[in-house]
């Protein structure tokens, strides 16, 4: 295809080949055509489609004339519908749209519904066609209609699947969702502007001065701003659900951190309700005291008013989030009026009474005098900071109702950061204004004025005509450092400040009363603490946590009645700070893990700044109250340990997982730079279990010497048609690895599909592992049925042993009396489970139909029974035979099941007999030694058997004891066997000959032609010449079995050197006969042969 830069390209000429892929260059500039002619930039291309000449084409360009047409296609990132007949993915109408290609295809176009989580509340998750469905050939009997193909292409279903046309009611209808102003900004401002603004900020300015006071506020804001930035980054890294700080931390750091902080954060919010309500009640009681209207006494009046208040707040919360939001807005208006009232009061000319109390409007002398610190006894910068910092908290008020926000990803960062900015300006303005208007000490006596001739002490008040010098010797009731009601005095209308205090306390209490149940509900829904799942239930369209509201109410009421909040207040502040620290650490950790999934839309963050924020939060915790910080860390630590121990079944893709992967990868790469050393050798096993649940005993014995020390890979080879094998393999990978995890077996599962068993094992031996973490030992079960198996199976079995030796991999063959394969037992269990389910279903059906009468009820019963696929009962005579057969099968299965679990049990006092006949580098000795270190085998002692000369038994025993002591391997006894090479007794040899008789060729008894023919037809049989050539070796295997029967019949386990068959010399059948006779009628046997490289050393 050639392309032309001339103006003709822009014409909508009919294509020469209408069925070919058309590429048309268009002008995307909004400039005039004259300007476009002078532009020599590379051409831009329009969206194209596969179209027929007869169809109309929709050409997408960016000319001014049709820019609006393009904009109509995409609204909020999705294709818009312009009328009832429009379908965004329709490929069979006269118009082709952006997502279509002009022909039927099962391949799906990108669509947001494919990326949703299952159970998503924002939309239904759809499944795109699998790779198998679009890769494999289409079945011949599947008719692809235009509509079905199009639905499949766009994720609406599969061919032949019925699609409901009924329009269901929108599940989100009626749900109240808040924007960033009402949902986040208002809540955060109300929480940050607490009662501290009205009754403590003036005292802080008096103690620290304007300069240090601004630094105190600035340092507090640094902590909250860094936390806000980290929170914004986490919020914009994916969809945020309900749960606030708990959700953010748990999804970033995992359930261990999230579960521990979530519980104490919810509790802190519940107790904070009591703190704020008591603050409100104290103000009310003070007003009652001024008018002599105390009901009982101050303490009990606080309890009474506090209890009534918390009941009213509960009613507002239970009424619904919409009512609560309206109440918050009203409270914010009152608070803003109160703050404005203060600033207005600073410019209203002061009267004589206010002057006597230290207020003189804005004065440069007062500003200069109050600029520096004047700490009283026991106070300092950090003590003042500790008192002020709780006023800066409250930035999580909006995040805590994240589930009730329209767009949490946008609302939380915007609302929180703006709230921090606005409240910071307000705090700084109030601090500076009050410091420039009010002196530190004042008597309140209007007669304390300067009389002519009096000496002035040089203070700002003295210069303004008032003598407050006696405050140097005695405590005065007024001034910044003495009067907590300075803002009321300065304001234009004092009752408005009281209203502001009421608004600040009630709004904070209301926000905490809503936050605690929301966070607690999210925690309970995740079922991290099983006993708390009762509180996960929500009610109504908004899924309100009514049970959580009641629990929060009870906790708050209890602390109001206890009225010992001064003790618990520092702990609550530290709980909040711990949440801030973990939010900062979450942002740092996610960035440090370098996961591709960490890509927040909020780009104004830095991982090291977030880490600094976390460290700063921890430091502030100790500054505020060191013992409260210690208590917080202890509680969090114990909750972390508890959640870690319980291991909740959740997977949130946390940064902890990402960092684990990065660490594992780095460590694996680092290992490759270090040469292997014999001191660090450990058995790293590839275990041919098939499915791990089908041969549990083989896996158990291998796991016994690899657990916590070496690699263990359970391998399975799928043999058969590749298509079916790959499909079965892919579908079972996760299930079988999950089985390993469920049974606490520290092993990996790997599978391959191959044309034959040997090819699959060969692939596994070569490709398994990573870097230095590669298998060095192959573990297989003994082929118990070798005498009934086809010759090809025996060739494959022996062949994998040869292959392992070729790859310099050690071999361990395990034999137990009952065999390993329990797949038939598992199949029977599955069938019994199905029958039990059918029985329960039938009982339920019968119960449902007990109330029905007549034939109608009976017919209904048969119908339901038919649906359950319940078959006819077998006649009695047949069932009797089956019962007898099932009894025998059951007994056999029971023995098999018991044998399959023998290595799971603790081995009693006994021995592990090690027959170290050939030096293979020490693997035959190392494996039993590792076993004795395990809890199940620690009561078993090692007995060592080695070959030797009859006339040198004691000397060789001393030599072996010396070698074992140098290897630092403890043993109970050493036996030197001097009669290994004598002939076995006749009965044993006769048994061996009878065993191999069916597999002998007997070519010496036949003529040459017949013998050659038999060799060609049955090359796997044992020839007379072979048997004669290796008669001594055959004698040895039979004799060894006699010795094993004599010495080790009572051992818990026998570990024996595996004889090696020389390739192309010893037939597979003869080798299997050796292994059979060697291990016959013995306890569990491990035939071990290392790769003849040292695995033991006596050097340090």
Automatic annotation (TrEMBL):
List locations, semicolon-separated.
Cell membrane
Q: Where in this protein does the record put region Disordered? A: 150-170
Q: What transmembrane ranges does the database entry give? A: 184-204, 210-240, 261-282, 302-322, 329-348, 381-403, 415-439, 493-516, 549-569, 575-593, 605-628
Q: Extract one GO molecular function annotation from the record.
A: sodium:potassium:chloride symporter activity
Residue ranges occupied by any Amino acid permease/ SLC12A domain in the UniProt entry: 183-686
Superkingdom per UniProt: Eukaryota
Q: An example of a Gene Ontology BP annotation on this entry?
A: potassium ion homeostasis
As recorded in UniProt, coiled-coil segments are 825-852
GO cellular component terms attached to this protein's record:
apical plasma membrane
Fetch the InterPro entries from UniProt: AA-permease/SLC12A_dom, AA_permease_N, SLC12_C, Slc12a1, SLC12A1/SLC12A2, SLC12A_fam
Every copy of the SLC12A transporter C-terminal domain together lies at 695-1100
Q: Which UniProt keywords apply?
A: Cell membrane, Chloride, Coiled coil, Glycoprotein, Ion transport, Membrane, Phosphoprotein, Potassium, Potassium transport, Sodium, Sodium transport, Symport, Transmembrane, Transmembrane helix, Transport
- Which Pfam families does the protein's record reference? AA_permease (PF00324), AA_permease_N (PF08403), SLC12 (PF03522)
The entry's family comment says: Belongs to the SLC12A transporter family.
- Name of the molecule in the record: Solute carrier family 12 member 1
Encoding gene, per UniProt annotation? SLC12A1
């Amino acid at each position: 295809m050639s392309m032309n830069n001339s103006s003709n390209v822009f014409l909508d000429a009919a294509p020469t080949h209408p069925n070919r892929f058309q590429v048309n260059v268009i002008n995307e500039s909004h400039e005039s055509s004259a300007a476009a002619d002078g532009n020599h930039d590379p051409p831009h291309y329009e969206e194209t489609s596969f179209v027929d000449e007869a169809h109309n084409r929709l050409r997408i360009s960016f000319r001014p004339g049709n820019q609006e047409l393009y904009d109509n296609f995409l609204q909020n990132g999705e294709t818009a519908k312009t009328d009832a007949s429009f379908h965004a993915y329709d490929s069979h109408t006269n118009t082709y749209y952006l997502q279509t290609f002009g022909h039927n295809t099962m391949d799906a176009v990108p669509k947001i519904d494919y990326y949703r989580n299952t159970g998503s509340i924002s939309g239904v998750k759809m499944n795109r066609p699998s790779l198998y469905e679009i890769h494999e050939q289409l079945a011949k009997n599947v008719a692809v209609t235009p509509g079905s193909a199009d639905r499949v292409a766009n994720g609406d279903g599969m061919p032949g699947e019925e699609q409901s046309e009924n329009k269901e009611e929108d599940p989100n209808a009626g749900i109240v969702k808040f924007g960033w102003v009402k949902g986040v900004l208002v809540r955060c401002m109300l929480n940050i502007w607490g009662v501290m603004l009205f009754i403590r900020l003036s005292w802080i300015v008096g103690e620290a001065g304007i300069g240090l006071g601004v630094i105190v506020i600035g340092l507090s804001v640094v902590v909250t701003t860094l936390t806000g930035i980290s929170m914004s980054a986490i919020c914009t890294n994916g969809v945020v659900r309900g749960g606030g700080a708990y959700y953010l931390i748990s999804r970033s750091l995992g359930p261990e951190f999230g579960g521990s902080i979530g519980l104490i954060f919810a509790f802190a919010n519940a107790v904070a309700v009591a703190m704020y309500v008591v603050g409100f009640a104290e103000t009310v009681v003070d007003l009652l005291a001024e008018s002599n209207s105390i009901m009982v006494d101050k303490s009990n009046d606080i309890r009474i008013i506090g209890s009534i208040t918390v009941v009213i707040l509960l009613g507002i919360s239970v009424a619904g989030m919409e009512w609560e939001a309206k109440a918050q807005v009203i409270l914010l208006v009152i608070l803003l009026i109160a703050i404005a009232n203060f600033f207005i009061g600073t410019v209203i000319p002061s009267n004589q009474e206010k002057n006597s109390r230290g207020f003189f409007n804005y004065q440069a002398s007062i500003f200069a005098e109050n600029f520096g610190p004047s700490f009283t006894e026991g106070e300092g910068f950090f003590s003042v900071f500790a008192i002020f910092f709780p006023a800066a908290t409250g930035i999580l008020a909006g995040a805590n109702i994240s589930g009730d926000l329209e767009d949490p990803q946008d609302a939380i960062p915007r609302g929180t950061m703006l709230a921090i900015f606005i409240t910071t300006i307000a705090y700084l303005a109030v601090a500076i204004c009050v410091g420039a208007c009010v002196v530190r000490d004042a008597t309140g006596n209007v007669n304390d004025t300067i009389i002519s001739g009096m000496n002035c002490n040089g203070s700002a008040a003295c210069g303004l005509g008032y003598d407050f010098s006696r405050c140097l010797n005695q405590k005065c009731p007024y001034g910044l450092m003495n009067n907590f009601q300075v803002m009321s005095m300065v304001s234009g209308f004092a009752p408005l400040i009281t209203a502001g205090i009421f608004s600040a306390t009630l709004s904070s209490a209301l926000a905490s009363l809503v936050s605690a149940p929301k966070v607690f509900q999210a925690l309970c829904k995740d079922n991290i603490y099983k006993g708390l799942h009762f509180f996960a239930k929500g009610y109504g369209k908004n899924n309100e946590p009514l049970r959580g509201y009641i629990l929060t109410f009870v906790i708050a009421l209890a602390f109001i009645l206890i009225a010992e909040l001064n003790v618990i207040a520092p702990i609550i502040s530290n709980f909040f700070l711990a949440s801030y620290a973990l939010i900062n650490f979450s942002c740092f950790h996610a960035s440090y893990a370098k996961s591709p999934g960490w890509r927040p839309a909020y780009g104004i963050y830095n991982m090291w700044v977030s880490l600094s924020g976390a460290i700063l939060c921890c430091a502030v915790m100790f500054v505020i109250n060191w013992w409260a910080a210690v208590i917080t860390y202890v509680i969090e630590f114990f909750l972390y340990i508890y959640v870690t121990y319980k291991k909740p079944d959740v997977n949130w893709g946390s940064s902890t997982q990402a960092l684990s992967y990065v660490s594992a990868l780095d460590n694996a790469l680092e290992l490759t730079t270090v040469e292997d050393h014999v001191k660090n050798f450990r058995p790293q096993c590839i275990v041919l279990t098939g499915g791990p649940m089908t041969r549990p005993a083989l896996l158990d014995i291998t796991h016994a010497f690899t657990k916590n020390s070496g690699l263990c890979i359970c391998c399975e080879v799928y043999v058969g048609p590749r298509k079916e094998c790959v499909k079965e393999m892919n579908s079972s990978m996760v299930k079988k690895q999950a089985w390993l995890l469920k049974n606490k077996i520290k092993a990996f599962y790997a599978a391959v599909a191959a044309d034959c068993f040997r090819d699959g094992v060969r692939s596994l031996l070569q490709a398994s592992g990573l870097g230095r973490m590669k298998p060095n030992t192959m573990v297989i079960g003994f082929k118990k049925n070798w005498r009934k198996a086809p010759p090809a199976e025996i060739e494959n079995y022996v062949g994998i042993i040869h292959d392992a030796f070729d790859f310099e991999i050690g071999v361990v063959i395990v034999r137990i009396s009952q065999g390993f394969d329990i797949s038939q037992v598992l199949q029977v269990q599955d069938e019994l489970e199905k029958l039990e389910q059918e029985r329960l279903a039938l009982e339920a059906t019968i119960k449902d139909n007990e109330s029905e009468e007549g034939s109608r009820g009976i017919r209904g019963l048969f119908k339901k029974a038919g649906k359950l696929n319940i078959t006819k009962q077998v006649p009695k005579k047949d069932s009797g035979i089956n019962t007898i057969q099932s009894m025998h099968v059951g007994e056999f299965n029971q023995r098999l099941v018991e044998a399959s679990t023998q290595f799971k049990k603790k081995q009693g006092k006994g021995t592990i007999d090690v027959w170290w006949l050939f030096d293979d580098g020490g693997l035959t000795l190392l494996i039993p030694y590792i076993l004795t270190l395990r809890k199940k085998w620690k009561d078993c002692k090692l007995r060592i058997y080695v070959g030797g000369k009859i006339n040198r038994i004691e000397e060789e025993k001393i030599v072996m004891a010396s070698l074992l002591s140098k290897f630092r391997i403890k043993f109970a006894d050493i036996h030197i066997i001097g009669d290994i090479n004598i002939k076995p007794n006749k009965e044993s040899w006769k048994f061996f000959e009878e065993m191999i008789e069916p597999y002998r060729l007997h070519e010496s008894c036949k003529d040459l032609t017949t013998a050659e023919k038999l060799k060609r037809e049955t090359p796997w049989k044992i020839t007379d010449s072979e048997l004669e050539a290796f008669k001594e070796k055959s004698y040895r295997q039979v004799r060894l079995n006699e010795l094993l029967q004599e010495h080790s019949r009572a051992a818990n386990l026998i570990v024996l050197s595996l004889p090696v068959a020389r390739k192309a010399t010893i037939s597979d059948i003869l080798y299997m006969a050796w292994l059979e006779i060697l291990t016959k009628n013995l306890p569990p046997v491990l035939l071990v042969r290392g790769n003849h490289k040292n695995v033991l050393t006596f050097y340090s």
